[in-house]
Amino acid sequence: MVPSVVKEASGLFTITSILMMHLKKAHKDSVFHCTVEYSLPNNIIKQIQSDTFSINLHYPSEKATFSLLNSEPVKEFDDVKMLCQTDGNPQPEFEFYKDGEDFEKGVSEGSLTLKNVRRSDAGLYKCSAIDFDNLDANLRGEINLTVHYIDPLSVIPKGPLSAMQGDMVELQCKPEIEEAVDGVVDKEGDMVTLSCSAQGHPAPQFTWTPSGTQSVTVAGNKVVSTVKLEANAAILTNGVTCKASNSHGEDLRPFKVYINQAMKTDSPNDAGRADKHQGGSSGVVIAVVVCVLLLLILVGLIYFLNKKGKLPCGKKDKKDVASGEVNNDIVVEMKTDKANEEAGLLNKPTGQQ
């Protein structure tokens, strides 16, 4: 501080104090004023203060901030305002974009205003700027905008509903699970994968009964839960249940798991049994053919021996009959026509011979 005192011709004094300082970025929000202290008779001391003032200090930017100015959660059809600013002065020019698309409408002095937002407006918004006094500064900011919404609801019980005045009426409103797709396996014991998707906010939590290896993915405004489990006998009989729930309610969706009938008909076990049956039938046919061949050979052998006269059974029977030894058993003698003719010739008279 440099003070100075000047005595005027009127006898009064003009007192001046000059403050000299090297301003830094830390002084950007400083408010200045000066105080004059003077004395009056009877040792009375008083003070008087000047008006306050601040300094428009220019300094380069080092970082940027991107903030959402809405104080309440953003719902569909709300107006949204986002502000991007740096820690420098003056503020540089800003650019706003989402998914690589620049915004021109709604941009003013570092702010971006969106009118009547839809659920499709949710996503990652970015802002960026360049300060030519500090080109090395990374002046970028991001906001992940969430738009709350609600789809047409199903209310249980369905209206119209009549009630007496003073009665208690309970209505249930669900977050909704999309249609379920049943599972198909080739055979019992195979692994089956089922997917259950739901929409709601806050994001729904999933519970599978029975449980398995579960994974959750987010596709836009939809949450998808996938479970992988073994298609045992209980699951093939009772199926699987998916439950989606959040703080506003829950919803259940059953899944059926069944065996592919085409695969069941043409299963390897059936093919094996068919091959086995075919193999057994072939064995029976071969055995019958062999037996027939053996029988034909046996018949041929008997016929050959009979033609040669080497079978003793016929001669023995003839001898027994000729000697008059007749057993109680019935004896049948087979004779050919030629033998009968010879016997007839022997019985004719001598002249006829």
Automatic annotation (TrEMBL):
<keyword id="KW-0393">Immunoglobulin domain</keyword>
<dbReference type="InterPro" id="IPR013783">
    <property type="entry name" value="Ig-like_fold"/>
</dbReference>
<feature type="domain" description="Ig-like">
    <location>
        <begin position="175"/>
        <end position="258"/>
    </location>
</feature>
<feature type="transmembrane region" description="Helical">
    <location>
        <begin position="283"/>
        <end position="305"/>
    </location>
</feature>
<keyword id="KW-1133">Transmembrane helix</keyword>
<dbReference type="InterPro" id="IPR003599">
    <property type="entry name" value="Ig_sub"/>
</dbReference>
<dbReference type="InterPro" id="IPR007110">
    <property type="entry name" value="Ig-like_dom"/>
</dbReference>
<dbReference type="InterPro" id="IPR003598">
    <property type="entry name" value="Ig_sub2"/>
</dbReference>
<keyword id="KW-0472">Membrane</keyword>
<keyword id="KW-0812">Transmembrane</keyword>
<dbReference type="InterPro" id="IPR051275">
    <property type="entry name" value="Cell_adhesion_signaling"/>
</dbReference>
<feature type="domain" description="Ig-like">
    <location>
        <begin position="60"/>
        <end position="146"/>
    </location>
</feature>
<protein>
    <recommendedName>
        <fullName>Ig-like domain-containing protein</fullName>
    </recommendedName>
</protein>
<keyword id="KW-1015">Disulfide bond</keyword>
<keyword id="KW-0325">Glycoprotein</keyword>
<dbReference type="Pfam" id="PF13927">
    <property type="entry name" value="Ig_3"/>
</dbReference>
<dbReference type="GO" id="GO:0016020">
    <property type="term" value="C:membrane"/>
</dbReference>
<dbReference type="InterPro" id="IPR036179">
    <property type="entry name" value="Ig-like_dom_sf"/>
</dbReference>
